[in-house]
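Run log, item B.
One chain of 173 residues. Sequence copied directly from the ordering sheet:
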Amino acid sequence: MDDEKLALEESRRAQQHESVKSEIEGGVQAEIAESANRAAPPGESQRIDEVAGQFRSKAVDEVVDTEREVGRARGLARVSQIIDYLFFLIYGLLGLRFLLALMAARSSAGFVQFVVTVTDPFYTPFRGIVSSPTVGGGHTLLMPLVIAFIAYVLLHLAINGLLRLLAHRKTAI
């Protein structure tokens, strides 16, 4: 019996809640409709159109600027990829020359001469900076080559850092 009374009371409260909710929603909708139907003062609608035009123009300008910056960033990314490729070639060739010297490869061999010829322009500025110790069996540790490798890594990092600075968009608040 008590359960039936509780269910009835709950049903009555739900109906009452729905009727109050509908009444409030109707009042709000009426206010919105009245506000929309009210005519704006003559100068205000012109001002609204001006502001809307300014916002539209600003949005278009921002999209154009963003597209331009994205295009520039893509170009700089491609340049960065090319620079990475060239530096990796230099690293590989200098590393190969280092290994050939460390293993005491015959300098009269054609491949060794090719590697030495190709890497000389990159190695020459560092030749003579420090001595190259030689160990038994003719193995040479080319310390200037190690220094050249480190210098090229630092140069590579500096160039990529500069490209990253140029590619990133500057935002203003």
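Observations after the first pass:
- Residues 33 and 53 are 26 Å apart (CA to CA).
- The mean pLDDT is 83.
Flagged for discussion on Thursday.
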